[in-house]
Amino acid sequence: MIRCKITLFFIFIIINSCSQSKKKEYDSLREALKEPLEVTHLNIWNEKISKDIIKLKNLRVLQISDDGIKKLPSYIGKLDNLQILDVFCENIKELPSSIKELKSLKKLKITSDSLKLLPNSIGKIENLEHLEVRSVLNKLPNSIGKLKKLKFLLIAEGLKELPNEIGGLIALEELSISLSTISFLPKSIEKLKNLRHLTIDGSSLEVLPEEFGELKNIISLRIRGAKLKELPLTFSNLITLEILNLSSNELKNLPKGFENLVALHNLMLNKNSFTKFPESITSLKKIWNLELKKNKIISFPESIKNLNRLQVLDFSEELLSDANYRYLKKLLPNTRILVH
Questions:
Q1: Based on the number of CB atoms within 10 Å of its own CB, is 120 exposed (0-12), middle (13-18) or buried (19 or more)?
Q2: How far apart are CA 310 and CA 23, in angstroms?
Q3: Buried b (16+ CB within 10 A) or exposed e, 267-292
Q4: How far apart are CA 188 and CA 166, in angstroms?
Q5: Which residue numbers in the chain have pLDDT < 70?
Q6: Where on the phi/psi map is residue 173: left (φ > 0), alpha (ψ -120 to 50), or beta?
Q7: Distance (Å, rounded) from C-alpha 21 to C-alpha 208?
């Protein structure tokens, strides 16, 4: 009987706490202001942001969606306990410098069609861990390197270059850049010792610096739709690399020492300029997925049979002759070879 009462008591506590948490989430600033100290989450949809928002002393998460907003009000910086700020405003052109006052902010996400610059004061958001900007951002402020706790950085569209100060992001674990005109990476990238995931999709990147080989904790690397003709010799230092996607580049060969990438299990080299199968790949014993679509490969080494863990060899959209297909099937009888 006592055990039953204890169980019922805890069920009541859980139900009560759930109902209270629901009361703390609001979809209207007007409604939120009726109980300002109870509000932890607020979604503002096409509603004017009045200065009264600073009465929400316990606000943790703020989402704003309004295409009429061109600039966030400066008093946003007075939300001392705000941890997540998510702004989806197509016409927003700038962020207030007062954003530096958000000392508790951990995640900042901006989606816009008009934002070209971030305020230099962004470097003073000392607890920021996640920064995501989906806009036509031209460049990052030099102060970006002061974000010592930043773990995730995503920039979508427009970026012309990475500042040398990017090397100051000593806690950075994931960097993602897409639809940029970046043609080189700064040498300071070698300082990103904690970087584990790097994605650069759609760029003018022609070379990787020799310092790239210092990213010795990287697990996944994706550089697609660039202009890479070769990889640096130091590429062979990336011995923790498990997933590599260099599709849609201009590669003809892999660098000396590529066989050192012993952790690699997923390799995608689609849409490059290979005419023969890179023999160094055959030393990579953990490879289980290999994609070579849309190249011009006409010869294969017998050592390809060493890829005994290979599950899928993808030559879709590749002009693979019947003779080569039979040859590969003989050497790799347990591998699924895709040719269509």
A1: middle
A2: 54
A3: bbbbbbebeebbebbbebeebebbbb
A4: 7
A5: 1-23
A6: alpha
A7: 49
Contact indicator for 191, 171 with CB cutoff of 8 Å: no
Total H helices, total E strands in the chain: 3, 15
Q: Are 232 and 212 in contact (CB under 8 A)?
A: yes
Tokens of 55: 């009465």
Residue count of the chain: 340
Measure CA 242 to chain center.
Answer: 16
Among residues 104, 24, 91, the alpha carbon closest in space to that of 56 is found at: 24
* Residues forming a β-bridge with 290: 267, 313
Closest by Cα among 139, 131, 146 to 161: 139
Burial zone of 255 (CB within 10 Å; 0-12 exposed, 13-18 middle, 19+ buried): middle
The one-character DSSP state at 148 is T
The two three-digit tokens of residue 193, written as one number = 């010792």
What pLDDT was estimated at residue 90?
94
Q: Where are the alpha helices (DSSP H) in the chain?
A: 2-23, 29-32, 322-331
What whole-number distance in Å separates Cα of residue 123 and Cα of residue 132?
A: 14
Q: Token match 């995931």: residue?
A: 197
pTM above 0.85, yes or no: yes
Could you give the CA distance from residue 32 to residue 13 in angstroms, rounded to a whole number?
Answer: 24
For 177, phi then psi, to 5°, come to -130, 130
In this predicted model, what pLDDT tens digit does every residue of 59-113 receive, in sequence order? 999 999 999 999 999 999 999 999 999 999 999 999 999 999 999 999 999 999 9
Please give the single-letter amino acid code of residue 1.
M
**DSSP-derived pairing of the beta strands 220-224 and 197-201:** parallel
Contacts of 14 (CB under 8 A, 6+ apart): none
C-alpha span between 268 and 292 (Å, rounded):
7
Task: Write the CA distances from 325 to 256, 266, 285, 287, 317, integer angstroms.
Answer: 27, 21, 22, 19, 14
